[in-house]
Amino acid sequence: MPKASPQSNNASPTDEPASQNEAVQEWELSVIETFVHAAQLIGVPKSVGQIYGLLYCRENPLPMDHIMDALGISKGSASMGLKTLRQIGAVKTVFVIGDRRDHYSPELRLRKLVSGFISDQVQPHLDSGGERLKHMESLLEELPGDRRKFAEQRIQSLGSWHGKMTTILPILRKLL
Asked: What's the CATH number where 44 sits?
């Protein structure tokens, strides 16, 4: 969680009274914790949620070194987290005049976030799921009769799930 002062990039520690500073820090911690829980729910590393949460709290785009300092994470965690977030379209790189570093800003549109996550994380698994189902079916002939009947039922169930997900994902993308 953030360990550095949660002020904006250009503020000095004396710009806000201590009680306001503490309130901002508590708010940031709460927001970041929310995104960490969301990241864990969808099976991505904790650092991905931390980074997105921090960027979500900040008015100005942040460079990677500021993200590392604020969250107390390694360069490797920051780099991988930002790469993941860029791949799913959750953060964008922003040009800041006079600074050669990349700065990052969060994507705030839910449709873009969900669509990016589905395209990058869910769709590839769904696509390969059809191939895995075909492979499972090809293995049925080798099973003894009683086991084959059970396996056929399970494969049929998996096929039904796969078909429903294939139908639902495009609808979900359009809804969001």
From this structure: 1.10.10.10
Q: Phi-psi category of 72—alpha, beta or left, where left has phi over 0 and alpha has psi -120 to 50?
A: left
Strand order in the sheet with 62-63: 62-63, 99-106, 91-96
pLDDT at res. 16: 56
| 109-160 residue pLDDT tens | 766 777 777 777 677 778 888 888 898 999 988 888 889 999 999 999 989 9
Q: What confidence category does residue 12 fall into, taking pLDDT thresholds of 50, 70 and 90?
A: very low
Overall domain count for the chain: 2
DSSP code at position 93:
E
**Do 90 and 122 share a domain, yes or no?**
no
Whole domain around residue 164: which residue ranges?
Answer: 110-175
Are 155 and 133 in contact by the 8 Å Cβ rule? The answer is yes
Q: Are 23 and 49 in contact (CB under 8 A)?
A: no
